[in-house]
Specification:
The protein is mainly alpha-helical. It has a single domain, classed as Up-down Bundle (Four Helix Bundle (Hemerythrin (Met), subunit A)), CATH 1.20.120. It has 7 helices and no strands.
Length: 187
């Protein structure tokens, strides 16, 4: 297994640790540890892609597992945010619907011997999601320190959430449009 694929697998392995810190406050500083764990996992997403392209280590495994690792990481955070009441459920439903649609399309493509790699819109969506999640985790940490959260900080959070939803919907439409022949031939 090459280095980019190891980084992808490391991102998946970090998810339970992130969830432990986010959801259980039995560890002192758990909010900061959740933030740092998620941020480190998000950084591996950038690193694995850069290393794979720079060193010509792009593999079909990486094309499939990298987006899956991103989805698992992001979905873990977002679903957990519903539990801790940081994100409205409708936001999560929209994001999950897009992810299931694109993943289903990828499964259909794989059956036909085609690998659908993440395109620029999928990458933009993922970057926006990860930045917004890191920002949300930062706000949770600041709140755990009993710092006042409001005004511009809340506005940035809300604008970020809207941007994430818009990017998610647009990238989903883009994937479906670009690959509609695969989808319609399966009906």
């Amino acid at each position: 297994m090459n280095l980019p694929n190891k980084l992808t697998m490391m991102r998946i392995i970090m998810i339970p640790l992130f969830l432990f810190f986010l959801l259980w406050d039995i560890v002192p500083g758990n909010e900061l540890l959740a933030l740092l764990t998620f941020a480190l996992a998000a950084i591996t997403d950038t690193l694995d892609g850069q290393i794979a392209r720079r060193r010509n280590l792009v593999t079909d495994f990486g094309k499939l597992m990298d987006p899956l690792a991103d989805k698992l990481l992001v979905m873990s955070a977002l679903v957990s945010f519903v539990e801790v009441q940081d994100v409205p459920a409708v936001v999560i439903v929209i994001i999950l619907a897009r992810e299931f649609m694109v993943t289903s399309l990828r499964l259909i493509a794989v059956e036909k011997g085609v690998v659908i790699a993440a395109d620029i819109w999928g990458k933009v969506k993922t970057v926006l999601q990860m930045f917004w999640i890191v920002y949300t985790l930062l706000l949770r940490w600041l709140a755990s320190l009993e710092m006042m959260i409001g005004g511009p900080l809340t506005l940035i959070y809300q604008v970020g959430m809207v941007l994430v939803v818009v990017a998610t919907v647009l990238s989903g439409i883009n994937y479906m449009y670009k690959n509609h022949k695969l989808f319609t031939k399966s009906i």
